[in-house]
Amino acid sequence: MNYISNPRALSVIVLAAVVAMLLGGAAQAGAAPSKKLPENYNFFAGIPYELAHPGGSLPGSNDYSCKPTSAHPRPVILVHGTGGSQTTNWGAYVPMLANRGYCVFALTYGAIAGLPWPATAVGGMGSIPASAAQLKRFITRVLTATGAKTVDIVGHSQGTYMPSYYLKKLGGAKFVTKYVSLAPLWRGTGGDLLAPVGRFMGRLTGTDGWLPVCTACSQMTPGSRTNDVIWAGGSPYVKGIDYTNISTRYDELVLPYTSGQVPGRRGESVRNVVVQDSCASDYSDHLAIAGSRRAAYLVLNALDPAHPVPVPCGVVPPFTG
């Protein structure tokens, strides 16, 4: 999403910084302990660790000695959203998945090259084709290390959109079994308002990556060349992959939120979920949906539908989850 030109989004970034400063002292160093990791269902839960360990991996993630089990035979790849990273986006998800026996891996993609930290922890800014190539290399490394044949992807925001380029353009479809999306945007964001602007700027500049600083942001508009790749064949989906789309009606960055609620065609395996449909007190926005216990348990059930967990329904606040 375009955080640069969205005033509300900028306020979210400021809030995140404040929360990070307040929580920064709570970060602990060291690799994942053998005992259970503490679970903190809060979108900002990973920021303190990034502050204490710049460029590091959250405890429980990126352990290349991890071997998938018969209960969880595929590594889970966490793909962050615009402005996120392997730590800052996944403070709720890494411990939850690691505690349940998954091999969990997360990357930071699309950071602006040549800049020092903390810019290295602000991913998803570069072009989507380049980020998809990063994802391809990362998944290849994970498969080689773990011995698995395929992976499951869990993405948030741009992390639901960019991997589809990997699937459709870079040969990734045969390496993915499940594709779980939080705040997806298959049709892009901005709807009918931004579509003509995106097409005009694309013709004027000769590229769909025309937005300064955040190349990916303009590639997530309807009608962009990148969006055309994702919709190659008339659908954003690939047959043989199991998709779950989890959206919120209060998404302020995926506009309209129904951009991510695309029905599957015959032969495609797609489940669409809007969190408010079964819990009116869920006020998740674009950030909170990647931090709440409620959405996280929906993800667990998407990854392992044979062993469902009860999904709670309580008041879910915006921003934090």
CATH homologous superfamily title:
Alpha/Beta hydrolase fold, catalytic domain
Q: Work out the helix count.
A: 9
Major sheet description: 6 strands, parallel
Quaternary organisation: single chain
> What is the CA-atom radius of gyration, in angstroms?
18 Å
Number of domains: 1
What's the CATH architecture name?
Answer: 3-Layer(aba) Sandwich
* Apparent shape: globular
Task: State the CATH topology.
Answer: Rossmann fold
Distance between the amino and carboxyl termini? 19 Å
Binned, the helix content reads: 25-40%
Query: Poorly predicted ranges (pLDDT <50, ≥5 residues)?
Result: 2-33
In words, what does this structure look like?
There is one protein chain. The chain is α/β, with parallel strands linked by helices and 321 residues long. It has a single domain (46-303), classed as Alpha/Beta hydrolase fold, catalytic domain (Rossmann fold, 3-Layer(aba) Sandwich). The protein is built from nine helices and six strands; from the N terminus they run ααβαβαβαβαααββα. It has helices at residues 7-23, 47-52, 93-99, 128-146, 158-169, 191-205, 215-218, 225-230, 293-303; strands at 76-79, 104-107, 151-156, 176-182, 242-247, 269-274. This is Triacylglycerol lipase. It holds the Pfam family Lipase_2. GO terms for molecular function: lipase activity. Residues 1-31 form the signal peptide.
